[in-house]
Amino acid sequence: MKTEQHWLVAQFRQGFNAENRSRATRDLRDGFGHIELWAVLGLHDIRQRYRRSKIGPFWITLSMGIFIGALGLVYGKLFGRALDAYLTYLAAGFLVWSFMSTTILDGARVFLRSGGMIKQLTAPLSVYVLRMVWENLIIFFHNIWIFVGLAIWFGIGFSWVTLLAVPGLLLLLVNGLWVGLLLGLLSARFRDIPLMLQSSMQLIFFLTPIIWEPGMLPGRPLLLSGNPFYHFLELVRAPLLGQLPSLENLLVALAVTLIGWAVSFVFFVVYRWRIPYWV
Hints:
With 279 residues, the chain is an all-alpha fold. It is 76% helix and 0% strand.
């Protein structure tokens, strides 16, 4: 057993050499340089999904708006919250959560769904991750009008604090890239990972304050401080609601970003060349 572990460590160290690091770095750099490729592919994916539809991708917005409205009416009544405050809270949280969860689930399948193109094109592998993040960002901008409409309807004003949602969203995008690289690579090798994530995200949804509020769980700080999804959620939701995210939210999000990129880069360096064979 120890001999096998030593062999795996030796193979991992051998794969993390200067040449592979250079190739992985060049792949990431060239991926950003192929903006015309991943931007067009992302738009094409959305158009194909709603081909011949009258309102196109706004079907996503319509269905999500109906879902948020129904959920807000039911849980707002159960929690005894004012409709205007609860609906805007729920909308902001659910829109950000939807972006995070779809990015994770799509990231796990990013190389699997592009297997044909990977085998035929010589494009950088990071192009497919950028394509996935770009596609989810477009959908997020479609859905954000749900929150804007509710805020205008209930007379909730916007201020300079609202602009802080922009850097929070940018941080989500940066994390979406390493999530796609890491989960996409692991899922190409182990096909059970996307299915495990599908079940896990449903559980995490109920453990994260999206439907419920943090004040409803007094004496349970670990459920919040130990939940990275909560911290990323607050970086965007709090400014949308006119509040400042806490320093803890920012520090945890930055720590997850740095650790996530470090781990994903190492795996990308060592196993990048195997992805075309796995898919």
